[in-house]
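Z., the sequence and structure:
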Amino acid sequence: MQSVVAFEDKLYVSDTRSPLFQEVVDAPRIFVFDLATKALEHTYILTENAYHANSYINDLRVDKKNNKIYFTDSGNSGLVILDLKTETFDRVLDEHSSTAAEQGYLTFTDGKWMNTVHSDGIALDTKNDKLYYHALTGYSLYSIPTKALISEDELDLEKAVTLEAKTSAPDGMIFDKNGNLYYADLENNKIKYREPNGSVHSLLEGDKVRWADTFCIYDNHLYYTNSRINEVTADISEMEFTVNRVYLPEK
């Protein structure tokens, strides 16, 4: 399993079908569980037009207004859209510059983490109806209006993409109710946030932040996991992977 997202009364779990970030063994899929009963409610299986042999269907966001789910593909750059009404998949911005990695490594205090990871972090701005996304090995934050994602003309869709800002290299990203975008600064063990006016601040830093991912906001707290991916070399039996929370003051 890759991404686990709770939205309203459902839990969405993505299965990349890509062990060890290698070629998919078969079609990636999304499991939907009822949070009250814990029962598996539905399974969506990507159709051939929505993924590649080297795809890694990663993070997801649910768009209630438009009845869609948006996914990033970190293995073969692009976005995937699931129409919940028709249960059909589309792939957009396939190998587009905005979804592609900018380099093949990240730099940490103990050296370089060598990997090329394309579109990964994703966040939905429900106030302005814009989808934000970011390559993991890159420093550019992009957005696209959700209304543009229904276009069948790829050129029109590409024209709707906006470079929002240059940022640190993140993994997890999420918006709060006030329009602040929280995201990781992987290389510097930080969590930052970007206000609607574009100003950037540090929320948390240090040993409590070690590859922050899987962001969730509940009861004025930001929850995140410490994935420690850059520290993993072989045996992980002695490593601890924690779930943490930090209070978010009203802004």
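Residues 123 and 193 are 13 Å apart (CA to CA). The helical segments are 154-159.

Let me know what you think.
H.
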